[in-house]
Amino acid sequence: MGNSNSGNKSGGGSLVTGILAGGKLPLGKHGEEKKAASVDAVRESSPPSPAPATYARASSPAPVIRDDERFDRPRNSTGSRGSSERSSFAADGDGPGSDITTLRTGSIGRANRSARGRSLRPSSFDEAHLISHVVAANNSAGSNRGQTAHILTTVPELELGSHLRQLYDRLCVIQPGTPVPVGVFARLWRVGQREAVAAVEELKTRELLQAVTLDDGTVWATLPMSAEDMVVLADDDAVTRFHSSLVDSYLETSEGGQLHAIPNDGYIWLNLVYHLICGDRAGEVAGLITEPAWLEAKLHAYGVAEVVSDFRRYLSDTEDADTKLLLQAFMLSVGACTAYPDTYILRQQLLGRLMTLTQQAEEGNGVSVKGADRRLSTNSVVSHTWLSAWAERQTAICMAEEHAAAGHTLVHLLPRSASLQQAGGRLRMTLRGHNGPVRRVVISPNGRDVITVSEDGSAQVWDMNVGDCVMQLARETPLTDVAAAPDGDLAVIGSQDGTCCLWDLNNGQIKHVLSGHSMTVNAVAVDRQGIRCVTASDDGTVRVWDIHTGQCEQVLKGHSDEVQGVVFDVAISSDGSLAALVSNDFCCRVYDLDEEAGDRPDALRVLQGHSGWVVSVEFIGTTEEIVTASHDATARVWDCSTGKCLHVLEGHTGRLNKVIVDSGGRYAITCSDDLTARVWDLDDGTCLSTLAGHAAWISAAAITRDGLLVVTVSGDATGFVWSTKTGAKLMELEGHSDAIRSVVTTLHGRFAVTASDDCTVRVWDMQACDVPQAAKHNGRVKQLRSLPDGRRLISIGDDGAVHVWDGGRASVLASVDSHSAGVSYIGTSTDGTRAVTGTSDRNVVVWSTDDGALVSELRAQQGSRVKDMVFDAGCTFAVVLLFDSTVSVIDTASGAVVRTIIGRGDRQVHTSGVNSLIISGDGKTLITCSKDGSAGIWELESGAVLGVVRGHSDGIVCAAISPDGSLLMTGSYDGAVQLSRVPDGSTLLSLTHDARPVALCLSPDCGLLAVALDGGSVVVWALGGDLSIPAAGLSASKAPAHRSDPA
Fold first, then answer.
1. Most buried residue, 302, 507, 899, 945, by most Cβ within 10 Å?
2. From CA 587, how far away is CA 560, in angstroms rounded?
3. Per-residue pLDDT averaged across 875-897, rounded?
4. Which of 99, 130, 119 is closest to 24 using CA atoms?
5. From CA 752, how far away is CA 733, in angstroms rounded?
6. DSSP labels, 490-501
7. Of residues 64 and 888, which shows the higher confidence score?
8. Cα separation of 1034 and 1020, whole Å?
9. Which helix (H) or strand (E) is 70 found in, with range?
């Protein structure tokens, strides 16, 4: 979700050239010189050139990083410095800061700290900031509409003349430090371009403005930010008029006089909402920020942070539930929009994610909002009539756009059901950016940033108020664990190559690389004093490091020997004096970290009692007691001062993966492979509740600071929220598509953050209402099959479910739940009344498409698993290909083998294994595709070979047969697609490609052949000639208009 767009020529390199050619320029009324920002920072923050079309995207990057101390301050709705807002994560309690849609101002200033540990934040403000703030400065300062006066540089010692003074007075609407093209001054002053340039030059000579001329001849200027030069100047009413007049000047030249149709000049898109609010026109803001075309254009031009900034300004002063929901829908849609920047899809995305709420509003039911636990007292019904009317208008626009674009351009389909994640529910945002499983997620102690580490070798810092990746560290090895220092300025990151790094979160630099381990680092921990960090490794050692110097203070070797030597986890006591380490030697060892290494080389205590690997350890509150979890299915409570085992926590039937202790030291949560978690009272060792409901192992858990809620995450890709005291399941967190590895909750327990093997991190609001989702598969959908009536279709999935859908209403008409394994194969009868589905364990079910009633079933069988399966048009028999390359015809009613097409070890037709099967529409002809590059053509009734397709130099990976069964197309690893005649297998055409074909499709009239290639592109071939005559009379040519390159 990071947004890093490259600058264009006129607004990028030319601006750099203009600045560098001028050298260092004086700043402030005393003419001091300050060091210019780096060229990299300048290039990253170049202003865009004006867009020629209404929604043309400016080629500007997202906001660069600015100094946190200067810019990360809360502001009120008009952008002035104040303290009316709080971080939604730091505060996540009551008030506007309790909703993630009311956003922390500081997040805008932190956007896009960048790659490989280097921050793009300028070190100080000077004329180079004229460039680096072109995009970002809109959020740096502003006018307080609650005050009766505004600030501007005082010039009592200068005689400006009445006209120049009038022009200068109007500059009070420009935020200090904001780069402004001279055209904006012309609009503000209501003068011509030449007069505006002359006035800017005059003000520059008097050191009242800073200005540069770019290579393209345009002039940009900014007001100085020297605090000592600020005094009261203009009254509130005058400033309001100035703001409004500037907006009007843009509307005079916009298409239809519409706000969202104002072209971008590098300034107005960033500051339009600011000027509207300060111009006492806040009512017009709602119309602007609910226009999808405006939101999408600004998103691609400046990044998500700038769009969210507009919402924040409006919502901080207005209680608007519908606009908040629209913002939630926007945040859920950002990933799709940024993945396809050349396709406008936001309108359809927003409609798809608001579908449940708008449908309920249309039905007049409203939306029930009820608290998830006893801390919430709200129980009201909210009517979203405005949202329903908005959706109706946007739907009409989508339909008109689809009609106009039909046959000409790619259009984004409008969902007919609430299949997308719905706004208003518990999922608030999805953080996309990692390319591998995310191993660990932590929230920094300041409550503002989330830090993630992944097997793709990257660590990322996310600003949770806007969902942007604001800093990234790229390493050459998978990362395993992360811990944050108590001040939030440093993160310790462990990796698979045995090294750790101390990452400075203020400037993005690697402060120290901790080298010493010879194998994977499994766990890292930082003491609460911010003095030491401890790392545990597969090499059997634990190392203690000084986080300020990066020096290794101690090497603890108690766990390593010739046979065993893996340290899985480490914990540090609250006072930083003790470290507890657990290993595969069935022991826990406790060390005194304050002792010199030479004085105490051995462990202070060796805690023995477990009969399996000890994999997790936690200290209990501020005591010297710990809890250990083991693969022997037990957890134990120990007193480190005496070495005595206080309690044995027994009850699990599978190995334990993790133990978690709440901050108060009252409860322990154990996570097990037995599909349950348990809550334990640490005072007496009793089990308070068993948390059962997951369908796979429980990998991790978190408990809120108040101890009321427990969040468990599992290999089944779900998270559950439970009551700690009763064990009741309060809610499910569904959205990930693969196992969840890690979970953490925010300070006040409102939000949970989960990290998954699906390469994403998701943020959940545990106080949000439960918005109903559309019927769906709980996993990947493997295949769709339409029925002859053209209205119904069937879906099969990895979850073992089969659904019959009404395509018009997007509702489920019937379901089949007879399969216990994922369904991979499907066939339908010619009349559409029956369907047959199969699984890899040879379970075949024939059922009615009207009501899902079972007709017949072949139970799963032992032996070689199914590689492919096809069915005849009457659903009476199945042709089954096993991994041993045998091909058999099976009666679906009796399960009897009717005929063996290819026996085990049979090499008469194919000299290598068979990859796949194809059956003709009439069910009379079978095609077997082999790894040896050949395709066999068989008569099913007799099992006789009719012909063999040869000519490929490598294995066949895809094939298709024409509707009338007379033409066979085969695609191979060699990049060729061969057209052959059925039944003799003679070759008609051979078409070559630059990549491996993955799918083939022939048009009903056999005039076009579509070839999908590995890499995402599709080539369409126009076939000429008569396919019934010899190959010499045939031809094929690429149809360029039909080539589709990957998005």
1. 302
2. 12
3. 92
4. 130
5. 9
6. EEEEEETTS-EE
7. 888
8. 16
9. helix 68-71
Q: Name residue, tokens 């629209």.
A: 326
Strand ranges, E, within 662-770: 667-672, 676-681, 687-692, 698-703, 709-714, 718-723, 729-734, 740-745, 751-756, 760-765
CB 591 within 8 A of CB 581: yes
Closest CA to 314 of 290, 331, 296, 297: 290
C-alpha 223/C-alpha 168 separation (Å) is 11
Residue 636: closest CA among 651, 623, 622, 621: 651
**pLDDT-derived band at 134, boundaries 50, 70, 90:** very low
- The closest of 446, 435, 540 to 486, measured between CA atoms, is 446
Angle at 409 between CA 406 and CA 413, to 5 degrees: 70
* Phi and psi, residue 687, nearest 5°: -85, 120
pLDDT of 799 over the 80 cut: yes
Q: Map tokens 């009903």 to a residue.
A: 1004
Write the pLDDT tens digit of every residue in 94-129: 332 333 333 333 332 223 322 223 222 222 233 344
Tell me if residue 299 falls in helix, strand or coil. helix
pLDDT given for residue 464 in this prediction? 77
Give the position of tokens 């070689």.
Answer: 864
Contacts of 956 (CB under 8 A, 6+ apart): 915, 916, 929, 930, 931, 933, 934, 935, 970, 971, 972
Distance (Å, whole) CA 532 – CA 516? 16
Whether 669 shows a pLDDT value over 50: the answer reads yes
Q: Quick one: pLDDT at residue 156?
A: 44
CB of 484 closer than 8 Å to CB of 526: yes
Residues in the chain: 1047
Pair 327, 308: CB distance under 8 Å: yes
DSSP code of 199?
H
Gap between the Cα atoms of 331 and 324, Å rounded: 11
Neighbours of 549 (CB within 10 A): 11
Say how far apart CA 652 and CA 649 lie, in whole Å: 9
* Cα–Cα distance, 440 to 460 (Å, whole number): 11
- Helix 304-315 and helix 282-289: axis angle, to 10°? 140
Cα–Cα distance, 661 to 658 (Å, whole number) = 10
- Longest Cα pair distance anywhere in the chain, in angstroms? 107
CA 265 to chain centre: 31
Q: Bigger pLDDT: 470 or 845?
A: 845
Q: How far apart are CA 527 and CA 487, in angstroms?
A: 11
Q: Residue for token digits 């709200």?
A: 378
Half-sphere exposure of 147 (CA within 13 A, CB side): 18
Calculate helix-pair angle for 182-189, 236-251, nearest 10 degrees: 110
Contact 72, 466 (CB under 8 A): no
For 207, phi and psi rounded to 5 degrees? 60, 30
Distances (CA, A) of 493 to 87, 504, 525: 26, 11, 10
Which one-letter amino acid corresponds to residue 553?
A: E
Structure tokens at 73: 């301050």
Q: Which of 723, 752, 713, 771 is nearest to 92 (CA)?
A: 752
What's the pLDDT tens digit per position in 327-379?
A: 999 999 998 898 888 888 999 999 999 988 887 766 655 444 433 333 333 33
Handedness of CA 1001, 1007, 1011, 1017 (dihedral sign): negative
Contact between residue 1042 and residue 1001 where contact means Cβ atoms under 8 Å apart: no
Most confident region among 119-123, 552-556, 936-940 by mean pLDDT:
936-940
Tell me the per-residue pLDDT of 379-397, one tens digit each, with 9 for 90 and over.
334 457 788 899 999 999 9
Determine the average pLDDT of the residues in 627-632. 97
CA 227 to CA 140: how far, in whole Å? 14
Work out whether strand 542-546 and strand 781-786 pair parallel, antiparallel, or are unpaired.
Answer: unpaired
Q: Decide: helix, strand or coil at residue 997.
A: strand
